[in-house]
Amino acid sequence: MTTDKKETKNTRKSKQPINEKSPLLPEKHASEEFKGAPFAGAVFNLSTSIIGAGIMALPTTMKVLGLGLGLGMIVFVAVLTEASLAMLLRFSRVGKSESYGEVMGDAFGVVGRRLLQICILLNNVGTLIVYMIIIGDVLSGTSSSGVHHAGVLEGWFGEQWWNSRTFVLLVTTIVVFAPLACFKRIDSLRHTSALAVALAIVFLIITAGITILKLFNGSVAMPRLLPKVTDITSIWGLFTAVPVLVTAFICHFNVHTIDNELEDSSLIQPVVKTSLALCSFIYILTSFFGFLLFGDSTLDDILANFDTNLGIPYSFLLNDVVRISYALHLMLVFPILFYPLRLNLDGLFFPAARSLVANNVRFGLISIGLLLLVFLGANFIPNIWYAFQFTGATATVCIGFIFPAAIALRDPHAIATKKDKILSVFMVALAVFSNLVAIYSDAYTIFKKNVNTNA
């Protein structure tokens, strides 16, 4: 057993750097002292890839689906995510692929690899825009629901020019995001990832504590277990929760990078299972207590609900702690998603160029361009629900379910079992149907809203 483990470590250390055909991976320019990422660090990085802005919209999915159906769907999507990652990693091992892009290239050639890169660009840009929107909501407030919800800075100092949304996001981008985006190895972020997970747990504990206290004093009503279904339109509306749930568990674009830096690559499956179990636990409790606390008044971004007196001692202090802790969490999660975004953009537009990490000028220009794009998107998109619907129903579902299933169905190495193929057909059919319905429902809602406004 000891010999096997040493051989695994030596294999990991002797891996060749990436080439232009595997743009999803960073070239290994680590120092000789770097012997591989530990298990805990890998779990924290993968968990941070999963837990992001999606958690803030999950209580709203409970409002759409009802608590019983909603919690069941969280578990269901987590199980499907684990199955899709297992298939993806199995095909990677057999094909000796070191990235998601290489697996897609192995199955579908250059077209498949390029299509994956485009989807990762759309998904990660959309998700990072959501992060900035939430940070803006927390610090500067939001009026996306038609009612103004004050931000933390506005509550402390009143409305000032320097706590306006645009200025706050600009300062956050320059002071926080830009330095964190400069790391060239994902394992360098393991400490910030651990802190990010801890801050998410702090948010959960405080929210649960407030809800339990209000339950004891009788000021919280029991939530709906099932969705409100009145007509066919309300049935179609249930599917709008699917893209949010899919987005909440997406982490496929980072799993190979984490695997490649792992000290013992045989631990990647336990890393995946541990991370999904931890994230599912946090998601279930956050959804339960968040929806129980605010009920049908739950906003698309639940952090915006924490701006009023909750009817408990030290309410406003706890409100600020909840919002600030999660805003800090998102700031620390940001570089984990920015990392694969930059690599994929470079691989898409500069496939023949030398490694990105070896070219500081290209590295800097791409980083600055992406930060500017995300900053502008966060200032023009009204709320996180629209961003989740767009990315979740298109690029995200492809990355998480359709592409892994397509690889298994293509089966370039003839290793797919009958179970794999049945599961793959099920995932593709479910993903395509549910997301087409979600897109239709969203488009219909927006059209109807515009018609009513014009009338």
Automatic annotation (TrEMBL):
Main localization of the protein described in the UniProt heading:
membrane
Q: What is this protein called?
A: Amino acid transporter AVT6A-like
Q: Name one GO molecular function term.
A: L-amino acid transmembrane transporter activity
Q: Where are its TM segments located?
A: 37-58, 64-89, 115-135, 166-183, 195-215, 235-255, 276-295, 324-341, 361-381, 387-409, 421-440
Ranges for domain Amino acid transporter transmembrane: 42-446
Gene for this chain: LOC108982445
The annotated topology with respect to the bilayer is:
Multi-pass membrane protein
Q: According to its record, what are the GO cellular component terms?
A: membrane; organelle membrane
Top-level taxon of origin:
Eukaryota
